[in-house]
Amino acid sequence: MEDFNRAYGQVFVPGRLTVGLMTPMAGQSGALADLALAQEHARLADALGFAALWTRDVPLMIPQGSANETAALDDPFLWLAALAAVTQRIVLATGAIVLPLRHPLHVAKAALTLDRISRGRLLLGLGSGDRPEEFSRFGADLEARDVVFREHWSALHTALAPAPVVDPEQYRVLPPPQARIPMLAVGSARQSLQWIAEHADAWASYHREEDRQKGRIALWHMAQDQRSPGMRKPFIQSVQLDLLDDPAAPAEAIELGLRTGRHALAAYLERMRELGVAHILFNLQRGVRPVEDVLREIGTDILPRI
């Protein structure tokens, strides 16, 4: 296996399912997150044994989704640096940097810096973006984002390489890191599964009904087998979670996730582990309970058992 930073081994543990959290965990449409509160949540998640804190890259405040919500999210690298400052072990992950809208050398500089100041705790998730308004405002070609994604990926991979650069005209953005930062494909990124299986260190996708997700994971494994039979790069899944007060409440579907009690959630996580999911990240913003209560319940009653 490649010499990855410490984040890779902490989030991707063979035979186990680890659990992460999307940040900020509390907030409302169009409002900036309370950093002090987010740092409190990060410290608590770190202490309870959650594996990772994730954040999104949303360049512009554009209404989106069935609720027509507007996200006001801080720069992902600066945001995760603020969470790194108040935590010790928990991994910091981007889900995902909109790669076609950023210069790969700027991404490399930010990623290498964050990985260094967090002592190897970064997972770099990368996506292609899909909002026409953003591409128009940035002067980028929406229809060419698949090609640009691959070009930027290649340049970024070279810039993040631990080995010295051979070409004297390819100046480094920082000295070579001690270990490689994992590069994850988030969503399809407008690429084939075969391309993702070859180039990405893991693949992150969204919540689906269980039989559909089983089929998706089978396709992921098939794409890897076409290159390296038996090789299994990690599969990551996001889940919108509304954890109810009643631990015995049955699970019911909500958009891209579940409304459920603790017992059904634990059973669901076990089924996901058996399907081959390596890491699940929960988005708690759909829930009505205090975030601290949800974190403590999952951290105390579920994490030790999975």
TrEMBL record:
It comes from the Bacteria. GO terms for molecular function: monooxygenase activity; oxidoreductase activity, acting on paired donors, with incorporation or reduction of molecular oxygen. Residues 25-249 form the Luciferase-like domain. The keyword Kinase does not apply. It is an enzyme of class 1 (oxidoreductase). Its EC number is 1.-.-.-. Keywords: Flavoprotein, FMN, Monooxygenase, Oxidoreductase. The keyword Flavoprotein applies. It holds the Pfam family Bac_luciferase. This is TIGR03571 family LLM class oxidoreductase.
